[in-house]
Amino acid sequence: MGTKTAAHIVWDWNGTLFHDIDAIIGATNAAFAELGLEPLTLEKYRELYCVPVPKFYERLMGRLPTEAEWEAMDDIFHRYYAEHRGACGLTVGAVELLSGWRSAGHSQSILSMYVHEELVPLVRGFGIEPHFIRVDGRTGPSGGSKAEHMVRHLASLTGVEPGRTVVIGDAADDAVAALHVGARAVLYTGGSHGRASLEAVGVPVVDTLEEAVAEAERIAA
Hints:
The chain has 2 domains: 8-17 and 91-220, Rossmann fold; 21-87. 47% of the residues lie in helices and 15% in strands. The chain has helices at 21-34, 42-48, 53-61, 67-84, 94-103, 116-125, 147-155, 172-180, 195-199, 209-220, and strands at residues 8-11, 18-19, 89-90, 107-115, 135-138, 165-169, 184-188, 205-206. The strands form 2 sheets. Strands 5-4-1-6-7-8 form a 6-stranded parallel β-sheet, sandwiched between helices. The chain has a two-stranded antiparallel ribbon with strand order 2-3. Helix 9 links the parallel strand 7 (184-188) and strand 8 (205-206). Helix 1 packs antiparallel against helix 4 and helix 7 (147-155) crosses helix 8 (172-180). 38% of the residues are buried. GO terms for molecular function: phosphoglycolate phosphatase activity.
């Protein structure tokens, strides 16, 4: 009889483990100002946000941004975000949950669409890197889906089976990426999407990371 593999969580970073929604809203509105768009409230942002990000801008502008507009807005967003992320911290309870999952004999990793060279020192700075068997940020252009990145991420993990893997994230795209590789997903309401848009995806939706981990343990059993 073969050995049953341990359950695995693939964590999203921005808006999930890292509570940076205030910096994201500020950076988005700074980018909008470049094109003369009205600033968004948190509620409106969560109602309209989607991936790929240019489609999000299309919902607000009534058209897709031109390549030059997209590049300018993307540059402003990342510059503003980099200036303000220092005021952000880990989501409440994250450290204890990461430690508890690892102590229970399970594994976990991070896959983020935040640029890899920025992500790794940020995770390391919070002292939580030892909890993860791998930390992957985005390589290549910004604004796309996480699905193909998830394929590469899981392929790089030894002894991790998609069927016992749960992706925990704050965006519908996290669930799309999970389903793309045969994994499951739990979506958290503390980040970029409101509950209504997350529930439309058809996977479990929770309001705390504690609930997310409990749900992950249940569905990966």
